[in-house]
Amino acid sequence: MMIDALPNPTTLNGADCIRILGVRIEDVDMQAACDLIKVMIESGGVHQVATVNPEFIIRARRDATFARVLEHTELNVPDGVGVIWAARRQGRLLHERVSGADLLPQLCARGSQYGWRVFFLGAKPGVAERAAANMAFQYQGLVVAGARAGSPHPDGDADSLAVIERAKPHLLFVAYGAPEQEHWLARNLPRLAQSQNGLVGIGVGGSFDYVSGIQKRASLRMQRLGLEWLYRLMREPRRFWRQLALVRFVIAVLTDSRATISI
Question: Structure pTM?
Answer without folding.
Answer: 0.86
